[in-house]
From TrEMBL:
<feature type="transmembrane region" description="Helical">
    <location>
        <begin position="270"/>
        <end position="289"/>
    </location>
</feature>
<dbReference type="GO" id="GO:0005886">
    <property type="term" value="C:plasma membrane"/>
</dbReference>
<feature type="transmembrane region" description="Helical">
    <location>
        <begin position="140"/>
        <end position="158"/>
    </location>
</feature>
<dbReference type="GO" id="GO:0004930">
    <property type="term" value="F:G protein-coupled receptor activity"/>
</dbReference>
<comment type="similarity">
    <text>Belongs to the G-protein coupled receptor 1 family.</text>
</comment>
<dbReference type="InterPro" id="IPR000725">
    <property type="entry name" value="Olfact_rcpt"/>
</dbReference>
<keyword id="KW-0807">Transducer</keyword>
<feature type="transmembrane region" description="Helical">
    <location>
        <begin position="98"/>
        <end position="120"/>
    </location>
</feature>
<keyword id="KW-0812">Transmembrane</keyword>
<dbReference type="Pfam" id="PF13853">
    <property type="entry name" value="7tm_4"/>
</dbReference>
<feature type="transmembrane region" description="Helical">
    <location>
        <begin position="25"/>
        <end position="47"/>
    </location>
</feature>
<dbReference type="InterPro" id="IPR000276">
    <property type="entry name" value="GPCR_Rhodpsn"/>
</dbReference>
<keyword id="KW-0675">Receptor</keyword>
<feature type="transmembrane region" description="Helical">
    <location>
        <begin position="59"/>
        <end position="78"/>
    </location>
</feature>
<keyword id="KW-1003">Cell membrane</keyword>
<keyword id="KW-0552">Olfaction</keyword>
<feature type="transmembrane region" description="Helical">
    <location>
        <begin position="205"/>
        <end position="225"/>
    </location>
</feature>
Amino acid sequence: MDGLNYTRVTHFTFLGLTSNHSLELTLFVVFGFMYLLILVGNVLIMVTVASDRCLHTPMYFFLGNLSFIDICHSSVTAPKMISDFLSLRKTISFNGCMAQLFFLHLCACAEIFLLTIMAYDRYIAICHPLQYMSLMSLKVCTWLVGALWVGATVHSVVQTVLTVQLPYCGPNILDTFFCDVPPVIKLACTDTYFTGVLIVSNSGMISLVCFLALLVSYIIILVSLRGRTAEGRRKALSTCAAHLLVVALFLGPCIFIYTRPATSFSADKVVAVFYTVVTPMLNPVIYTLRNAEVKNSMKKLRDRKIFFMGT
């Protein structure tokens, strides 16, 4: 395309999840309700962790941050997707598309790094309990959260720059419901093989390496639990099981999408819905239903509010 004139694409059009208008109305209600649950559930966890001093520990500090990231992550794509169910033409400006792509990768990468840090936290708590308070002090936790946002920003900038510098002269139809790197670069008016390799190396390797690090840490934890009492094993496994379930629900789809070449599969849309909407909705349920401390703190918060209302 060097040296040739071309008309730059000014907007992209989504094909969305379906072309059936009746089904779109149903999906509008379903996903609208799911997004509301995401906001309510994750805000409730954040408020509970912040208001109860018993939960001012590294594990719950990270849990509160996970809820914040889940709200941000789902808000990048869900509101646009929900509003598009009521639109005949599902369009987004070029700049809006690049912004959505940037914040999508920022939040997704931040969540991957945070899940890895949470696994490290559990490893220290179970395998090195006497050193836990020194190794996972508030200062250390704050630095870790700051570092994950810096790392996520670098990753997202790389992804966005690799995408935005390509020439786009048409077509502008995206067979999806949000802007992501793989479907967008397929529309570029140039060979994107090298760019695709860089993107797979970046996103795919982050997902895969973090998943392997998580797997190794939990194998070590399981081995260390052999000498514990039955009650100690039960409590440790309960916490770890909730975290492992969240990891599987989030990292599984990420690995499926970002560790292969830019080819489309029929399951891509379903997988994308899963890690952008379903997982952020399920995370509060997973952590509250399996965690007695969080449930007790929520009951205390509820009773306190009822008391205030009656005074």
